[in-house]
Amino acid sequence: MVVLRTELVATGGTTTGIEVPEDVVLAFERGKRVPVVVTLNGGHTYRGSVASYQGGYWVGVSAAHRAAAGIEAGEQVDVELVVDDEPRTADVPADLAAALAAGGPDVSAAWARLSYSKQNAHVLAVEGAKTDATRARRVAAVVAALAPSR
């Protein structure tokens, strides 16, 4: 575990991040992209990754995380970083899970092979639909993308 007091930096547009010193990243002994659990100001906790960005190492802090922690760009924050060894799994909505199962074992296996990030991108696309028709189309598109070519 590492605790830092640092500035929440505006990194362009509406994005913000926390720069992590290189010696901290190297001390994790996990390479240069380290999955971490981030705690901001002793309260709000989320899962993220330390990643190389613009010549340094950064953890992104989304607008949702800033709001939950009650912080804004330019403020000093207390940051706790703990290496995250837990597997990351996407929270698959029921309609998508049913469609994946109905797609057969090849579709289910293809879904299981996707990285957490790719699974989560599909989940966010489905959940971001504003109408039931759009949601159904997006669910069908996920299944079609995973189905074996014929």
Describe what this molecule looks like in 3D.
By secondary structure, this protein is α+β, with helices and mostly antiparallel strands. It has two domains: 82 residues, AF2212/PG0164-like (Elongation Factor Tu (Ef-tu), domain 3, Beta Barrel); 53 residues, no CATH class. The chain is built from six helices and seven strands, in the order βββαβββαβαααα. It has a seven-stranded antiparallel sheet with strand order 1-7-4-5-6-3-2. A hairpin with a 3-residue loop joins strand 4 and strand 5. Helix 3 runs parallel beside helix 6 and helix 5 packs antiparallel against helix 6. The longest helix is centred in the C-terminal third of the chain and has 15 residues. The mean pLDDT is 92.
Domains, number:
2
Share of helix among residues?
Answer: 25-40%
Radius of gyration based on Cα positions: 19 Å
- Number of DSSP helices? 6
- Spell out the helices and strands N to C: EEEHEEEHEHHHH
Euclidean distance between termini CA atoms: 50 Å
Strand fraction? 25-35%
CATH architecture of the largest domain: Beta Barrel
Main sheet overview = 7 strands, antiparallel
Question: How many DSSP E strands?
Answer: 7
Order of strands across the main sheet: 1-7-4-5-6-3-2
Question: What is the highest CATH level, the class of the largest domain?
Answer: Mainly Beta
Based on secondary structure, the structural category is alpha+beta
Mean pLDDT: 92
The CATH superfamily of the largest domain is AF2212/PG0164-like
CATH topology type of the largest domain: Elongation Factor Tu (Ef-tu), domain 3
Low-pLDDT residue intervals, each spanning 5 or more residues: none
Coarse morphology: elongated
